[in-house]
Amino acid sequence: MATESLAPVAAITDLILGTLTIILANRAVNHDQHKRFTALLFGWTFIFIGAYYMIISLIELQYPDGVFGWSLIQFGTFAPTSDGTFDALVFMLYGLQAGINILTLALALHLPFDLGAGRGWNSAIIGGVGAYCIVMPIVILFGGFSITVIQSLMIFATAAIWTMIYIRGIVAELVNGDEEARSASKGAGLLLIAFYSGTMIWWLSTVMLANNEWFSGVIAQMSESSSIFYLLGVETLWVAGLMPLMVVFLGEGYRTFKKGSSLLSVVIFVVAVIGFINYFIDIAVSDILVSCYETECQELPAAYRVWETLTTGVLSFLFVPMLFVYILIQYRLIDTSLDENRNLLRMMILLLLLIVSSSFIEMIQSLIPVPQMVTASLLAIAVAFFIGWEERITGWFVNESTDGKIVSGDDILTQSFSKFTVLMSIVLIYIIAISWLFAAMGVGA
Amino acid sequence: MSGKEVSPEFDFTAFTELLDDRASNITMGVVLTIVAVVLTYTTVDLANLNEEVRGLVDGDNNWDVSFEIQSMTFQETIVMVDGEQRQLDFDVDQSDLPEGFRVGQIRATVSYGETSGLPADPADSVAANVLQTDMQAQWNDNNNTLSGSSNDATDIELILRTHPGFTGQSVNATGINEYQVLQPWLIEGFGTGTFSVVVELNTQSPPFLNDSDEEIVVNVEVVMFKPSATPT
Q1: How many structural domains compose chain B?
Q2: What is the reported pTM?
Q3: Are residues B36 and B68 in the same domain?
Q4: Are the beta carbons of A232 and B43 separated by less than 8 Å?
Q5: pLDDT for residue A268 is more than 80
Q6: ipTM for the predicted complex
Q7: Is B4 part of any domain?
Q8: Which residue range(s) make up the domain with B17?
């Protein structure tokens, strides 16, 4: 059974959202400077994630028979082929992944609140992001790809910062009775889910070592033995998903018991249940996972692909952009008070909801044989619903909450906004250029 | 000196404030301890797996593949008249094979003598050939003997190799495990179906006497093998 890839949908959604966010951040000259800068960081994270998915879509389109796994980029298991275009696209993914990692760390240092301040703080952040995006792709390409797992440390550090903020917020709310502290724990929790849900849904497989069994199949196909540091880097990445899930799950479980459920608690429970089921799926297909060295390589069953699309795919490609927009608006990172901004915002929300719902319906159609007339009707219902309830939906996103108050930080020079935008545009062009150049030179072959 | 306060280059007050709550710090400490434990045992497990897998992948991958041989035989005795050509079919069914065995080759021996009892009667002339059927076999193998003849009553030996590469002798192979090494020898379907031998008789008679027929025996031996691999 062929399932439709959601990567192109995620690419379009993220690129549009990124562009709109950058426009809104640059336009809101009277808005809080710190929030504007955080929105700009968000916007560029969108653009990098969108570009990443766009390249994944190109690879899926151009090389439909090729095997292109997540581990190829995340764990650096790629071995250059003789196809220069393919190699160049993969090199770009490494560069974009490095960009996403450093932008996420920068976001963690700014949201829900600024962890640093001072005259040089934001300049250091901008300089750090730029330097990292320039140096890291070169290090990965010339360091043999597997060196990319060194970034696991940074990914873990980012998760640790948000986890600490979550703990601080939930303890303040539930132990010390500080109701306003909920904004911090909610923000940190949602950000953790937005950035780490991809590894969170393998939490039980991490604890029960099923991930290792899967990775042993990847190791078998690598040309050289892996060092202990490399293996530690691989495990650090899994643990970077396990740690926040464990903390947010327990925190939200206790909070739900005390105060009732919330958006965050519902989402984290769903993620935890998916992770629980994923472990047993791992057990069911364990013979296939190790088949490459125990017997001979076998294909995963079609049902596994369907489950993966409905969980990992929907979560990463469709749900995460919605979560990003929710955070962006709830924490007032973009100014929603101006009429012109509010119109753009309404457009953003409607666009997002329509893209997500139509893609979801298309995906369902590719999985189960529902007649097109039925899915077309469902889409029409969704469109009617979104138009009819547009005010209410936008209002739900932009409701008057106190969450925005917690986002605080020091001022930033006005010219830094345009400089950061120029810098990130150059970084994007730089990543594309060096990838083409070094792929053409046969680097890594 | 100006009264205006100059902000420092870097100020990490917010970061230190994040760490100034004892209950939160203890909770985070417990979390990080659990994380360290999980990280340690998962890394040790992965290192062990890595060693095991690399041992298989990078280790000595030479194997000796040997074969346990069994045979299944068919025999048919026919009496043919001078100038007659007859086709004999032998059916080899998959269900006839013992568990784990494959058909390696099929041998046919066509035997006859001079049975007329006539004085000075020379041996008859017999020709035999294996007819190509739908049976999956190595029909173009150079080591096949698919036709033969005799005019001195010696046996005619025919051989058809069915499984690719099978000679009956042990072979060397490379592969990361026994399963992969044995894969080529576990393919089913070769050598099953109809094996057909066409026999033609031309009698030789002494002068003024008539030798018009002969008894011909066709023995068919289906050679089956069961492979096993041992590392060398």
Answers
A1: 2
A2: 0.76
A3: no
A4: yes
A5: yes
A6: 0.88
A7: no
A8: 13-58
